[in-house]
Amino acid sequence: MFARRLCTVLLMVLFAAPRTLGAQQLEETCSTAIPVNVDAGVFRHDMIALLRHSGTFRAQCERLARTPRVHVTIAATLNLSSRAQTVIRRLASGAISADVVLLFGENYRELLAHEFEHILEQLDGVDLRQEAAEGRAWLLSGGVFETRRAIETGVQVRREAEPQHAHAVAPPTR
Q1: Which residues contact 136 (CB under 8 A, 6 or more apart)?
Q2: Cβ neighbours of 73 (radius 10 Å)
Q3: 6-30 burial, b if ≥16 CB within 10 A, otherwise e?
Q4: Which residues touch 115 (CB under 8 Å, ≥6 apart)?
Q5: Residue 76 CA from chain centroid, whole number
Q6: How high is the pLDDT of residue 172?
Q7: Residues 87-100: pLDDT tens digits?
Q8: 69, HSE (Cβ side, Cα atoms, 13 Å)
Q9: In the chain, N or C terminus with fewer CB closer than 10 Å?
Q10: How far apart are CA 172 and CA 112, in angstroms?
Q11: What is the pLDDT of residues 32-45, one digit of tens each?
């Protein structure tokens, strides 16, 4: 009787352990998975790092992943008048296509979050003209808007993704 109970307990432990480990690995993979509707291109490494270190960026990606009618493509360029831009097109089907272009050599991690926030603003139905009238956005040359929300989100993600040693205070010098 005792041997049968011991065997039952051992079998339960043996079969439960891999499932627990698998669930943990699945959770870690999900928290660092680039949404399937985002074509990260050469920014895959930066996105994975951001997913690991920034809860704000992770929330942005989770929101995009839950919105399959949105497709995001990210690319780099050497020829851009600003550090980044996103062109958003609304298709007749209701789908949204967003082309994010980042200037080569810039702070990609901040800019990715900044540009993703512009996409999320569109999903939220933000009225950019109203935002500008209320001082939360600015109309730039070429009819392009910049928003305080995207700026603040980019800075927040950059701070979350900074290495811990960047926050250390240097010892006083004598």
Answers
A1: 147, 148, 149
A2: 15
A3: eeeeeeeeeeeeeeeeeeeeeeeee
A4: 84, 85, 86, 100, 102, 150
A5: 17
A6: 52
A7: 999 999 999 999 99
A8: 11
A9: C
A10: 36
A11: 789 999 999 999 99
